[in-house]
Amino acid sequence: MGLPTDTWEKAADELKQKKPANIIACAAGSGADEYTLKKLTEIVVKLDNLQPDTLKQFFKWVSQSIKQSSQSVAQVMANNQPINLPPPPQGITIIP
Predict the structure, then answer these.
(1) Which one, 18, 30, 69, 93, has the greatest CB density within 10 A?
(2) Measuring CA to CA, which residue among 54, 63, 43 is closest to residue 91?
(3) Using one digit for the tens of pLDDT, what is the confidence trace for 23-37?
């Protein structure tokens, strides 16, 4: 229920160390384990409510985030800095 079912830890460690891109993981639903996703990337969002309006707001927010961060992605990647995300809409939590 919301957890990986295979051996993934080594691949997750390699991905996080190489950091080939800014990765945003999404824990969707109350059974998803956001702390497992934190082993892949520092940026994890959680959606407890999977109603159509919440999903619509989530994808709108992701689109805005991509648009905002794509303007300076080369600089962010070169300096190994995380992307700056706009504040999430209601129903979406950024996991610290």
Answers:
(1) 69
(2) 54
(3) 888 888 888 888 888
Which among 91, 92, 95, 67 is positioned nearest to 83, based on CA atoms?
67
- Neighbour count for residue 44 (Cβ, 10 Å): 22
Q: What share of the chain is helix, strand, coil (3-state, %, to 5)?
A: 40, 15, 45
pTM of the model: 0.69
Residue 79 pLDDT = 61
Distances in Å between the Cα of 12 and the Cα atoms of 32, 40, 46, 89, 94 are 17, 5, 19, 28, 20
Q: Let me know: does 76 contact 83? Beta carbons within 8 Å.
A: yes
CA–CA separation, 12 and 14 (whole Å): 5
Question: In this structure, what are the phi and psi dihedrals at residue 92, rounded to the nearest 5 degrees?
Answer: -120, 130
Ranges of the chain whose pLDDT falls below 50: none
The per-residue pLDDT for 72 is 57
